[in-house]
Hints:
Blueprint lengths: L3 H14 L42 H48 L4 H6 L3 H16 L3 E5 L23 H4 L4 E7 L2 E11 L5 E10 H41 L4 H15 L5 E6 L4 E4 L1 H7 L17 H9 L3 E8 L2 E9 L8 E8 L1 H26 L6 H15 L3 E7 H4 L9 E7 L13 E2 L6 H8 L3 E3 L13 H9 L4 E9 L2 E10 L8 H38 L10 E8 L6 E10 L3 E12 L1 H18 L5 H21 L9 E9 L4 E7 L5 E3 L5 E2 L5 E2 L12 E4 L5 E5 L11 H12 L6 H12 L8 E8 L7 E6 L5 H15 L6 H18 L4 E7 L2 E8 L19 H8 L2 E7 L2 E9 L2
Helix pairs in contact: 1-7, 2-6, 10-15, 11-15, 15-16, 16-17, 18-19, 20-21, 21-22
Amino acid sequence: MIRFFGRFRDARSRSLAGRRVHSRGSGPDVDQGxxxxxxxxxxxxxxxxxxxxxxxxxxxxGQVFILQVAVVLLxxxxxxxxxxxxxxxxxxxxxxDRSVAVAQSFAHAPxxxxxxxxxxxxxxxxxxxxxxxKAAGVDFIVVMNTNGxxxxxxxxxxxxxxxxxxxxxxxxxRTHVESVDGPLGHEVQAVVPVFGADGSVVGLVSAGLxxxxxxxxxxxxxxxxxGTGAAALxxxxxxxxxxxxxxxxxxxxLGPVEMTRMYEHHDTVLHSVREGVLIVxxxxxxxLANDEASRLLALPPDAEGRPxxxxxxxxxxxxxxxxxxxxTDEVHMAGDRLLAVNHRPTAxxxxxxxxxxxxxxxxELRALSGKAEVARRRLQLLYDAGMRIGTTLDVVRTAExxxxxxxxxxxxxxxxxxxxxxxxxxxxxxxxMRRTALSGVQEGHPFYPLGELISFAPGTPQAFGFGTGRxxxxxxxxxxxGWQEQDPERARRVVEQxxxxxxxxxxxxxxxxxxxxxxxxxxxxxxFEEDDLSVAEELAARAALSIDNARRFTREHTMxxxxxxxxxxxxxxxQSALTIAHRYLPAQAGVGGDWFDVIPLPGARVALVVGxxxxxxxxxxxxxxxLRTAVHxxxxxxxxxxxxxxxxxxxxxxxxxxxxxxxxxxxxxxxxCLYAIYDPVSxxxxxxxxxxxxxxxxRPDGTAEFPELPVGPPLGVGGLPFETAxxxxxxxxxxxxxxxxxxxxxxxxxDEGFELLRNALAQPGRSPEETCxxxxxxxxxxxxxxxxxxxxxxxxxxxxxxVAEWDVPFEPAAVADMRAAVAAQLAAWDLDExxxxxxxxxxxxxxxxxxxxxPPIRVRLLRDRTLLCEVSDASSTSPxxxxxxxxxxxxxxxxxxxxxxxxxxxxxxxxGKVIWAEQPLP
Length: 922
């Protein structure tokens, strides 16, 4: 920073404040109140008072003022005269141009020639010329014949008289402009010929303005011109006065003696300040160097006048002094000193070419700034570590991030060893650690390899740090201070590869040691120091917290996945109606609430279920398990899909109410479900959905479509019924049920997802397993953002020889005939062993239907994996199993059926009910 000029000025002011100044006839100006030429002393100026100096015409400031005033007056007066003359000339020219334009316009007016040749031109032209004159802003428009006799005039008494002016040029076909004394006064007028159709001049038109009107318009501009000139003169004189005043204040009216003394003071100050000053001329030679600059730069005695390049300065300093560029506190070396250099050119404020530089010794600040820079770098390193370490909730990846970051910024090699149980998400148990991450080493390194389980010896830094929780520094590894006890041969190889120091730090989080991280140096020549311990400990602490978070997440995620897997079907039940394949893919974010199910139903039917609980985590998984159990339980009632969804909807609503009443904020909201029942006897599939995506259907020829199904509200909304749809499926068709995670994706539209699914399904002859694989490969990324449940079922239809049906007359005697018919059918199926029990079951069921039911009555036998006996009637009354007393004559029929059959039950149809009993095949 260049401050010596200010110091010189202050010193000069102080020197002037206490001395007495004598007035001289031709010397500097004197204070007010003193007459020029007297020998009286000037009163001593008090501190804080500004010295006032009169303007003297013999001073430089006075002469400059007079000269500038004269120049300004000359310029302003000349400019005003020029403007006046220009204004008058412009006014006259405008009057001539307007007269010519108006006259020519009227001369070329249509019909003028006919009017001039008419019987009374004056009667026609007089009103027209007056109207045109007023519109054009001229004083007169006169139309005349070739003899100069007027047909129009602003003064009607002048009509018929001879025109005052020159008409000969216009009779020759030219436009003539002149200034004359006419009837209206001194006028500027233009005379224009009027040409006939044959090109001859048939008349003349004159238009003009009075000179006094033109002059008055110019005179109106004179106040503005003179006012502007006066303002310009005032501004110029004011500027001249300010310049003169500043010049007077800068010189202070000092004479040669005073100026000499002032520069002596300047020189004294220049060589007394504790800041070096260099002044370099435009030819790059040193003009001045004060004592401090000579001391700091070790300049030779004859340095002034020599080129800067010959002074033996630091190259960087030479480049700065010869470049002329501006520099502020730029650091340069001068021997063993560290100098802060400020450099400014001297030419830009109007001074001589060259530059001035100030030097300040900052060697003592070097150590402090170095320590501050080291602290800043360490803070930046720790900040970057917080951004780079712990980006995932994965224990191994977090350890790898610690090793990679430390190798790049802190050490040459890093090894991370974690307690084995930590890798499984459990609490740390024991002292054996597994090598989890290793970075910064080449092929053939001497360190323990990744994955090896290590038990550190008690004397090693790792064992000590793990047990005590304190970091250990080995600044000189070749000295073998005990760190080599684990494996002396391996330690020797480590030293041979150039590793000279290390720091072993325990990975502690929440008061528990999870493992150890060891930092090694080989390429960096400087060994680890005590100051590096704090950095290593901070890095380890940040990484340990991230590792512990990842460990806890791993434990909870494992528990949630285990719970979810236990709630999903572990295997598919045996049945003959469908060939089924399924897939379940958990979301990348964790477990979710998607589920699927396959439930065998009486009559060889199968129920297919796909559902989705919105959200992720344990709450979604537990909710999924509760709803899956509820669907299983309701399916045992053999309800139609719409009624079953209605019961589940009511259950979800009750659970929500209970959750809210208990003060839990998480209710069961956003649950969707699709429930379908397939009957292999008829090939019909009945289904209903509660806010779920509809199924896809692949025909045997490979055609894929999305059947239209009525959309019901999600479960738990309540108040709206569910509707059932029925599809007739050909044998070999594939019914595809899925959750929204398969279709919806942030990178694509849902319609695009449906089209992708259609294309993935549209291929004939594939098995359900192949269909599942093809769909997932086409639709999903490696790690989906949402759970995906996929169920593919290929339909089968029972052969006609596996089904037997009879209509039963509504009379008790029909029971014997049905027993005989059933026995014959069982013999045809080679099931004679079941004839007795089957006849007994059918006898009881048919008898109950005839006694308590309503016709028509039908009997059906199905031979599948079991033998199924069904008796249906049109009554909705359901029989109940009871124990008959010893005195009761009846009531034992259903009890016998329950004892003989493996299972039995009742299901309701649109028209009546069906009572069924199932027996295993022999």
